[in-house]
Fold each of these.
Amino acid sequence: MTLAQLTLRSVEVRPVLVPLQRPVVSRVGHFDRWPLILIDLRTDEGIVGKSYLEPYLKQSARYIVPAIHDLAAARKGTRIRPLEDFQTARRALNLIGYEGVSMIAIAGLDMAAWDALAKAAGLPLAELLGGSAGSVAAYNSNGLWLTGVESLDREAEALIAEGGFTALKLRLGRERLDDDRRAIRIVRDAVGADVKLMVDFNQGLTFGDALRRCHALDDEGLYWFEEPVTYNDLRGCAQLAEELTTPVQLGENFYGPRELMRAMEMRACDYVMPDLMRIGGVSGWLRAAPIAAALGIEVSTHLYPEVAAHLMRVTETAHWLEWQDWAYQILAEPFQLADGRLIVPNKPGCGIEWDEKAVERLGYDI
């Protein structure tokens, strides 16, 4: 196989705001609409690479979009080499820091570049990376937020039915421990003992509260405790991981492979789940996932199920894919689910194409 040589011509970057079927209600905020930043990377050869970012805050597009344009302008007329471009972009921005907008902009362009290369090769991204298209075990993360516990049973049943799921994400961190315990038991009674419950505190606990609460819930048969405290309290997370029977999950807020490595060195978690926007897109993932694999740490995903599914097909210690349908409203062909697994389409690239009518309807000015 001879890989096509692609030359970056321009980028088109468009923010959209999609309504959520089930609003996000957590310790870090309440969102009934979700911002996405759509990226079209155009090449001189006519191939268009596509990706999107999920920056959480609508107003964040005001500074992320210009950063993407600046990075693309610096590369205009150059050959697309994502691994090399990742390093070049990082060096160009190190004076303002590797975290935050710097990495987010780099990641968005990186994912679009890999999509373009895979399209030019006529291969799914997973095959371009040496793997195969197929399916990936997924859990449903579309609901079970910090809402009233009375309706959690019906919602859990509906989430299972959305794709034959055998695992769900439940958010915890209510004011009273007893309410968290009640939420767990309502969901467990509704879906049965065989369904795995991953619980997420969304960084909502102080370290002292996390010590008390996680120990109190350690005998509930939960699959993992996710981000019980602020993501950068690695020392506190390491103590929790050491003391608890329930595994501790971290990683969605690690900016780049070195931050993941630092958490591994401190034994801050039992599982890790990088986020493509923060870890550095496909190139950042390809550098980070082998670090976890070398230590025998299982790797799950955070958001971006369409791109992440390809990467899970080539990740040695692939664990669980987090599935949400938040981007489906602007996708021309949403990915399919079967028996709790997301199916990677056997088509060139990542499989992302826009529904332009929906994009026009949901777009907004910055």
Amino acid sequence: ETFSLKELLISVMVKSANDSAYLVGEYLAGGNMSQFIQRMNERAAELKMTSTRFFNAHGLPEKKTDNTANCEDLARLANELLRHDQAIEWASMQKYAFRANAEEPTLLANHNQLITSTIGVDGMKTGYTKRAGFCITATCLRNDRRLIAVTTGFKSSKRRDEFTRDLLDWGYTLP
């Protein structure tokens, strides 16, 4: 099967499709995944993401190593993504029909429930690993004011979402 780069990127932004993330890396580096990982780390350094270290393109833990980043670094990454209208558009999609032209398309649903339940939230990414718990980097725009909230370490996505919603609401009460 052949997929467009756009289809793969949307599936990564909407559903955290790890297989798509791997394929994107493989494509962009001409089949050399090590080269892609090196470029990811170089770009993180350019963005002053000083606590970030990538070991793979998909973010899942490996046998010996985990990708690492702190909340400040993830806010920096979200801020960079906000410069790209396509990233915001894709991150805010509730659903996406992957392989739309296939006989049976795969409907992907966004894990970020805040895009439908919290005023102004337009992205960016949820995550989960056993070590980090349920995490989110949420971007929100209200009254021409942009906030980025990064939360991590929750035992459930419901609690993560409640806390992050409250954090954003609090942030908008500040001058």
Amino acid sequence: LRKSYPQCKVFMVGHSDGSTFLGATPELFLSKRGKELKTVALAGTIRRGIDKAEDDLLATTLLGNKKERHEHQVVADSIEEALAPLSRMFSMAPGPSILPLKNVQHLETKIQATLQRGRSLMELLARLHPTPAVGGAPKQDALSFIESNESADRGWYAGLVGWIDGAGDGVFGVGIRSALIRGNRAWAFAGAGIVAESDPELEWNETAMKL
């Protein structure tokens, strides 16, 4: 995974029942060093091209796609809404750039903040999670809908994976592009953001690319 996805955060977490949760997540959820915070809005996806020319064309198509930009903006707005009130300085890139991975390309907007005094990493995690990318928006309405209508058990999928040190600093990623391994069986997880303009077949194909 490290070799195939150098831009991702690779993780592996063992459980007392002998199962292992692992993956290569492209989504930095939160990085905190003292009062300095970094995160990203990551939403909007298209495939990779067979050569640089097609790759660049697909990237341009993604940047200009209204549906994908809307999906991305919902995530970016929710992060700003959650973090800006806790920050002395909040800075978001003026627009998304392309994050190319081995199998897909994403829209990514980088975000930085200088926190107010006394803001803890655990407070930030609780305030941000889940973002619309995995939990929907508006948050409470979306989570209630998911609980009532989603038949699959997510388990640790889309949860947070990371570390925290004695100073209260740490790095967390979102447990997507992941799998649970138990004995000789594995359950692989991937998803897609659904908005009003989503085409079911295209969203299905997107999850297949991610898997």
